[in-house]
Prior knowledge:
Blueprint: H1 2-22, E1 31-33, E2 38-40, E3 46-48, E4 57-63, H2 68-84, E5 89-95, H3 102-114, E6 121-122, H4 129-133, E7 143-148, E8 152-154, E9 158-159, H5 166-179
Parallel strand pairs: 4-5, 5-6
Antiparallel strand pairs: 1-8, 2-3, 4-7, 7-9
Amino acid sequence: MKRIVSLCLLLAMSAAVLTGCGSQKQDLVSKTPFPEFSEADTEGNTITNDIFADYDVTIVNFWNNGCGTCIAEMPELEEMYQEFQKDNINLIGVGADSGENEEQLELAKSILKEKGVTYQNISPDPEHDFYKDFIADITGYPTTYVVDGEGNIIGAPLIGNVKDQMDTLQSRIDQIRNIK
């Protein structure tokens, strides 16, 4: 009987502690600095981390030329890009394999043109640290990061079609905008 009373008391205390923790607003989404970079876009213009400071939020979508899902979602991303601009939200693409050689770059350009993409797309150099230390570790495409105006990645990457994860994307955007 003493064990049962002790167990009940322990459970009641645990419930009280958990309820107390649940009543406080918790920030469970991590912030990590986006890696520094200075890369050319598909048109030859230099893009650096400075781009993040120009917007409240930047959505960074990593894709490659051989990824059917990446290519299929481009018109959806373009639509989001057009819609988000009025809210000071940017979207940029990173064609992970477009910087490997001229043939890959031309293929990336033709894909972007065919899909009607107008947002900037970085063509990273595989010899640069940004590629070696960050892009080379991406294990699935498309992979999308949400970055705040200070250059911090908010939360874990979104892997797969972004439109299928709009609730998560919107939640991260809202979190960044509420901080300001």
